[in-house]
Prior knowledge:
The protein is mostly helical.
Amino acid sequence: MPSLATVAALAAAGLGAGALGAMIGIGGGVLLVPALVLVFHTTPHVAVATSLVAVVATSTAAGSAYVASGLANMRLAMTLEIATTIGGALGGVAAAHVAPNVLSAALAALLVVTAGLLSTARDRSPPPGHARGAARAIEREAPTDAPAPHEAPREEHGALAGSYFDEREGRVVRYEARRWPLGAAVSLVAGAVSGMLGVGGGFLKVPAMALGMGVPIRVAAATSNFMIGVTAASSLSIYLVRGLVAPRIAAPVALGVVAGSLAATRVAGKVPGRALRLLTSAALLVAAAQLALRLIHSDAAR
């Protein structure tokens, strides 16, 4: 039975991971797994299973809030989620046959890649009246046919498009997602990686939507938050059957994640996305370095 201090520390780790994950749409798994392995000394497989529980909790809390607000694009989410769910199930099956050290090495490499993707991801929306890149995202000052600032975000019927009011910039943004086959291919890979490493797959989906499909970063993060729960659930069932979910660890982490996710959805629109992504990238690089050092010491001890 974990001590009260350990339970509080697990909940705090979940709180931080849930808040950051909800804000940038990555689910928090890329932060939780290294924290569980390095700080709480769980095995990589248990850490992955716990993280998947947390990702489902993040999606349930933050994803539902974003869906209710209309910022998450449901049509886009459902288009990409089919490929992600297939990948998640395949990844969960494969992970059970992978050695712990191999999982740790893969996670360290993944953290470095994720840090790079997050630090370079940016909102691809062009200036008012212009189309740029493959996205053809359009931003307009309020009136015309765009919704008024006080109106909720909306999706366009029959298209992977919509609009929302950007609180920080004080204007309405209209967007249209393009290159959905590219998004589906990345989502398949994200699902497989999620099933193997317990990271939700949002770290790949958000850059794919923002950079490859031209979706504004805030819409990409909100849509990803909805999607990652479905992805994680498809993988989590496999870990549950194999008895790798530790309730005494997963429960406090999940409670912290829910609290952090709900808090993040209230302030996400007011936090500079660039600063948040750079901070998260720095944390991921530190975790990757720690995992690499642990692997080196583990090999040297043999």
